[in-house]
Write the structure tokens for this entry.
Amino acid sequence: MLGERVSTLLVKSFEDIFDVTFTARLEEELDEIEEGKLPWREAVKEFWEKFVIDLDKAGDEMLSYKAGIPTGKKCEKCGQGELLERISRHGFFLGCSRYPECDFIQDLSPETPEEASGEPKTEYCDNCGKEMAIKRGRFGTFLACTGYPDCKTTRRLVQGTRIAHEPDEPLDEKCTLCGNGLVKKHGRFGEFIGCSGYPKCKYTRPITMGIKCPKCNEGEFVRRGSAGKGGRGRPRVFYGCSRYPDCDFTSPHMPIAEPCPKCGAPFIVEKRSKIGTVHACLKEGCDWERLVPEVQPQAQPEETVAPVGAKS
């Protein structure tokens, strides 16, 4: 989606360069330069003189998604401003030209096959019953109750889609701070347990993996994520003790509730290496390691073609 829009802007502003004739001629000039028939400075000069003109013109006239590209459509909320197509770190969206006086936005994330297959699903607020609308915040798009500010119910969306996560799941536990019921919620880094009285009560608790911490032997492993980025722009995921900050043990490898076959340690971990995925022991002095075989996709059964004239 981003590449398509960037390509459209570049082609419009640099028609001379994004042209089949120019590309073909450039290949011929490179061959002539290699053969010594054409001085390279002369070829570059011919290209640069045209490119500088287009570049200056693009600087003044090229449309900017950051400033907003006019769509010719009126804002659905205020009816006065014009909808502008803009981009943020979460993707493309439509926003009102009267922002911040009007905060209307419309997400332009591509539809998933599930969404495109039928009528868009309307989500309703679990607390007041009103429709939920897509909003945009500092952590991306989310669903919010249209009854705001009287109702502050929100739901996260599955990343890269307009499909909402399942509603909070009530648990048979009470909050230790306020006495309200606890619920299972969806956060930036996965599921966690929080108070149903949020935002008045901000009690939260991670969901543990049922594997004891090897350092304190009291807490259990929990899956965590940091605000920083890991390799290739991915959020950094690691595994730590549920008693943090009293216990600061962490591991970048996912623990598995299986004993080490060599030393008997209560758990092993899954690592990513150059040779593939391996299961290994973290206990000091134990070098047990095993390559995890890749799961081969199941072959589809071949259809038996009946001979012509055969009866089924």
Notes: The CA atoms of residues 127 and 153 lie 7 Å apart.
